[in-house]
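One record is set out below.
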Amino acid sequence: MSLISSFLNKISFTDKTVISFFERIDNPNLFFNHNLFVDYNNHFFFYDTKTNFSFFAVGKVESIQDHSLAGNNFTFISNADESIQKSFPLFIGYKKFTDSQKENVWSDFQIENWFIPKFIFINNGNESFAIHNFIGNNFDEAGFEKFLSYKNDRYEFIHDLIKVDFVNFSTTKEEWELIVSSAKESISKGEIEKVVLARKAEIKYRSDINPFAILSNLFEKSNESVLFSIKEKDSFFLGATPEKLFSIKDNLIETEALAGTIARSKNESETILLDKNFLNDKKEIEEQQKVLDYIISKLKLFSDEIYFNKIPSIKKLNLIQHLHTKIAAKVNSTTKIIDLLNELHPTPAVCGFPKENALQIIDELENFDRGLYSGVFGWFNNYNAGEFYVGIRSALFQKNIAHIFAGCGIVNGSIPEKEFYETELKMKPILDLFNYENKS
């Protein structure tokens, strides 16, 4: 008798029971397991470089629309201790920036998709598990055994640059100046205070690649970030985002206001001067303050206990740095994750303010769909715990085409040329993976 069958013989369940079977394993080579990325039609990979928390999930057991299966009378059972279940994902998924459909490049992804994965490898930095989720007695022992067989696969980092046939930017420098001028006109009329505009680079490359090859190159360059890869059908969306939307555990929400951007320097004395100027740059401070004010106003809908520093710090990434304010808030136990998600996303950091006006201007001025770029992805469980991140510093890969995205905030004092350079800087981590010299 298998371990799963033995467990089922000891419990009562129905065809409305979601069962999560945990098997403790030695710390596996989850990160950059080449065959895992290749062999499944869909996957969801998440790796927090700050905490070493990671998981790799495949398959779908049940999709949901409202972050809750309670209305369908589902119950949840696991062979793992509750303390373990509270810290681990049960539901994973994503939500696009908007439902705009100007083009077909994002058609493999739903507008919003939250689901229970069939199999997960997971590591919290201290211990590792393989998990098989199923409903009733519909477990897949053979599939789980196959999934488990990957845990000992060896891997190697791939450092070869990807050879490129052509590169096309959706917005040239001249076109960029026009749309920024249009946005600033809307700002001067008082229609908006800020709008985030984006550019896209389309790259055609010569050979087939998989997410493993991209992520293994990003890994060494992505401090203070969450690396991710989401594959659906023939498309995968991946990147290394520094922007946390929010996390929640034990009714404590942690989030951040991240905005304002400058390049980093490798020179120590120059770094000191850059940091000082950055923290006193009126335009950058104003942009970050708008994000902070927005998040605080939304959290007030859920909490009377909100904590944050009034003076921003600097979040230093590999190539660039941002103004950054950590925020925490205590909410009651009835707060729904879906409500938090819908209120907070999209923030002025990726959209603008006021939100609805900024969304309209983005739709008018951008000649492409953002899809999951500046959308949200993450995980949660039935203990009202979860983590969500914003899909920036990212790219969509389809067959031999990559779509690379980057945006920047436009406010009253924005200089088009400077903002154009900022988008170039934000594209650089992914563009550097290709054998390509940017001459725009």
Residues 282-299 form the longest helix (18 residues).
